[in-house]
Amino acid sequence: MPNPHFKGGNNNNKAGGAPKPPFNKDFNRNRFRGPQQDDDANRINEQIRGVQEVRLVGENIETGIYPFKKALEMAREQNLDLVEISAKATPPVCKIIDYSKFKYEQKKKQKELKAKTHQTVVKEIRFGPNIDEHDFEFKLKHAQEFLKDGNKIKAYVQFVGRTIVFKERGEVILLRFAQALEELGKPDQLPKLEGKRMILMLSPKTTVKK
To answer: Per-residue pLDDT tens for 191-209?
Structure first.
């Protein structure tokens, strides 16, 4: 007859029931860990801990060293924030500002900097040593657009077969090309013969289009 008090399990499990899963100390430790603070974020107000005094800089205050509590009180009186801008200094440097506005300005500057950081693209323009005036003007117009967009230009004269004897003509073409673009671009170096190509590199003078 089955025992009504039997709760399952086996002889190896004295407490009865299914075996407990192994204890994961890493899981339990991470489970109750507080949110990690961004190392690059500025500490503000009560977040600034372990500091007895700070050096205050900025507008509407007298620059100098103040007790931390006094600096925090000054910020509150102006309905502003005490922001730590240089934690490694001795004492740390703080500023009394509107932190929300400060973060907005920081993001705005980063966005503007990113917009100005233009990935350099090299556009190639090929000439023949016997190029006619129409083709030269056509390629010149393309080069003007490339430079206005902030791109570099690799202009070269390709010598095929015996046309290598006209390398002086190639140099004249490239120098004329550079002169025609002097308001938009500047040569990185004089025309240089590399194998069967005479090459001229031009960098833009103008800013990138927005």
So the answer is: 998 988 999 999 998 654 4
